[in-house]
Amino acid sequence: MKLYCLSNDPNKPCHILTFREITLMLDCGLSMQSVLNFLPLSYVYSNRLHNLPVWMPNDGGDTDVEGELRENGDRIFIDSLPEFCPPLDKLIDFAQVDVILISNYLCMMALPFITEGTGFQGKVYATEPTLQIGRLLLEELVTHIEQCPKANFASQWKNIVHKLPYPLNESFKPKSWRQIYNMANVNESLSRIQMVGYNEKIDIYGALQVLPTSSGYNLGSSNWIITSDHEKVVYLSGSSTLTTHPRPMDHHALKNADVLIMTDLTQTPISNPDSMLGLLCVVVSLTLRGGGNALIPCYPSGVIYDLFECLSIKMQDLGVQNCPMFFISPVADMSLAYSNILAEWLSSAKQNRVYVPDEPFPHALLLKNSKLKHFKHIYSEGFSTDFQEPCVVFCGHPSLRFGDVVQFIELWGNNPRNCIVFTEPDFDYIEALAPFQPIQMKVAHCAIDTSLNFTQANKLIKDLKPTTLVVPECYTQPPVSAPTLTELVIENNSDRTLIPYKWGEVINLPLKRKQGQIIMETEVAQKINPIEVKTGISLSALSGALTIKDNVHNMTSFDAGGENKLQKGTHYEWGLVNVTEFLQKLAQEGIIDAKVEPSGNGVMIHLSSIDEERSD
Fold first, then answer.
1. Coil, helix or strand for 325?
2. Beta-Casp domain location, by residue (predicted)?
3. Could you tell me the pLDDT band of residue 561, with boundaries at 50, 70 and 90?
4. What is the pTM assigned to this prediction?
């Protein structure tokens, strides 16, 4: 069994697992950190961005890059459509992948890069919410970028990366970066997905079975259990033990695995999600009371549902409930609709509201009372009529490089009464704001990450009792943000084997097949006559026809008219030979010239007459 790591970001994982001649891809996350190096895309012409000074190397010799790089403060940005860092395609041919297992909708953004134009012919499995909400995220991403086309495509800067200032000079494999796919690629890749339910067993070419269980992270998020007849592998990605809107994590089925692969732990190890949510509500409410507007960059699904609920309550407590909330996204209407019809994937508290009957999420009531309004874009019909200040705006993209958020920062950035609140942990908020500096609006960092922290992960591992634990190497050392907190690591205990891995590595996992399963015909099974050869071990000789198809072994009796080439009464010896008894048997057959000679851990018996014949 081998594990390949194709992603440089453990929170956007992509792995290849080879097991019993089956090639599985575990998630296909897309690293978007590269987009922070690009200038924001604006729906309308921006004088400020357009007039940023062009940057050139000090030696002046690389004229090919002229116009590709612009300078703002001490940062250099690429003036081009943003590019993304897809999973590594050098270690394995994607056409060889048999199955892709997707854990959650945040870990499928690279799917079109993998399935389209690569010769991929395998199967893709995901839950219904993962497919439907993943579709929304993919559509939103493509729409944001396609609505802001750029005539120029910058590529020459990649040839002089070593001459560029930080952080461009530390860009990760920039020549492998790619521009975003189109909607045709998105639709084609999503058409390959087969929807599965929790605890539904799926046969993989007769060799393996895979089964998704709830991971508690977001709607439809899964951990995957991969089993053969005698082995068990668990892939744990994007899991949460906190009580939010998704169905709770099911950890019972994950116990006693031969191999546990754990990734996608929290990106905010020193923050508590509950305290961050409380802080966000206070910051937004106080901003509104001061006559300012609150801007919250976000994805169109996930934590945003909890934000609607908690924020509306806090706004009422502080007397600013009349300030409207706007949700702006190309898929805003579909996101709100799906969240209320996917009841079976919700927590029991949310499910119970459905049977009252009532909407599982309070945002349905907010919509009815016009406290929450949704639009596809800021230029959508009716937005300018309904828009009023002060207000709260939820819109994308959290990177601040494309989407309606760019327009709102341009609109509100120079007013210190306004506030931008960062809730998504995927991007460094200082880096995200860099092209907009200097900025006057207040900035609040309230990143909310409900996935497992290190304390929860270590407790869960102790409960699951895996034989071998496989984690990204960065989880075995304190995070960069808190290098002195040595408790923020995955513990290495003596009762299990810990194997770390990193990007681009291929590691051998200590799981070897020792047993297999054969399905016997009744007639063959009736002939079994076990004889105990050792305490607890019995053997029996069998004759029959063994057929192997789709990795399933079947043993049947020989056809009535078929010829049995095995001689009846044939004995199959097993165990150690008693040399003295063997020599006596030879003598009884007239062979009396046998000589015994020690050889390694055993003996060699020479028959003199036969040795002499060979020498002649």
1. strand
2. 304-433
3. very low
4. 0.85
